[in-house]
Amino acid sequence: MTGTDTEADVEHVVIGGVDSHADTIHVAVVTDRGGQLADAEFPTTTAGYTAAIAFMAAHGAVVSVGVEGTSSYGSGFTRAAREAGLTVIEVNRPDKAERRRIGKSDPIDAYAAARAVVSGRATSAPKGDAVAGIRALHNAARSAIKARTAALNQIGHILICAPDGIRAKYEVLRGDMRVAALVRLRIGSDPIHAPVLTALRTLARRVQSLTSEHMALTSELDVLVTRLNPGLRAAYGIGPDTATQLLITAGDNPARLRTEASFAALCGVAPVPASSGKTNRHRLSRGGDRAANAALHRIALVRMRRDQRTRDYVARQTDAGRTKKEILRLLKRAIAREVFRLLTTTVEVPEIADLRPARQAKNITLTAAANHFGVWPAVISNIERGLRRDDAFASTYREWLPAA
């Protein structure tokens, strides 16, 4: 091969960029130095994706493709490109300052996506299909909770304006007791009370249905999350909902997460300097994925209440003069560090399936075991069923059972 042939081969290396929409995708092709070559529009169909990939390949060897919206409108093209053996890079939308400077159109955005890959500004791989399924179930579960809350609020509003007899009877009840009582309502034929009672019973039945739906979806999510990352799900204070949200934020491919600091910034828990004069402090970040931030916040609250190590840490920080907000900031940052490790490395989870059969074989009740260890029976039950992780206690419990 001559030097001229080598230079020709280098010149034919190209990078693609895709601006995705509901019905169309706009594809642009640039050189490895960012020079414009061509662009075209294709439909969001299997045939359209094939034609778009062929269009890019016609201009040279495609090194990688920057796609805007890999988890939304661009998900179909992302799958097709991966199946074709192309390297797909997730690209964020151009910032507002750049859009004001160069304008906004589909070709401009497609070229910007390609140049983001050329410049190295975009480097993250798209999220995998496993997380896409988890996200769909999570959205369904969240919508069920929102609808349930709306129905409960409607019940409360109706009772405020209901006739005195109805209001006095049901306003004193709370939560599930009120819902259960309203489900058993007998309407009667009173023209004033009947419409109100019908509305209350309908809403109460809706609440029960949505509660069952949410429980079923959460159970399915728990199975999927545990299968995908057992170490994350087994960590203390991380339930099905918070584990699901953290996986949705991070994705199921560890290559997306370059450093622990970048993951903390992604979750909005990277400390932000807030010093002035003699004051030297940091504050919580207001950026990042707020849903992931909320998940870390819930984990921190659970550990502050129930985890002895965390409670000891809070006591030490309080004695040092830190406020609750500052302690929460430190805790969330520490939890983000732990979650990053769980997301990027394989963590072995101790087996607990033998605990319940061993206890039952000895005819030991949950109450008897709980009394021996000085804990509630629910603690033993949760550990046996894998709903709570406490490796030290589980090991002690396993050693005690044969001698009990």
Automatic annotation (TrEMBL):
One Pfam family hit: Transposase_20
Domain Transposase IS110-like N-terminal: 17-159
Transmembrane segments: none
Domain Transposase IS116/IS110/IS902 C-terminal, residue spans: 235-314
Name this polypeptide is given: IS110 family transposase
Organism: Streptomyces yanii
Taxonomic placement: Bacteria, Bacillati, Actinomycetota, Actinomycetes, Kitasatosporales
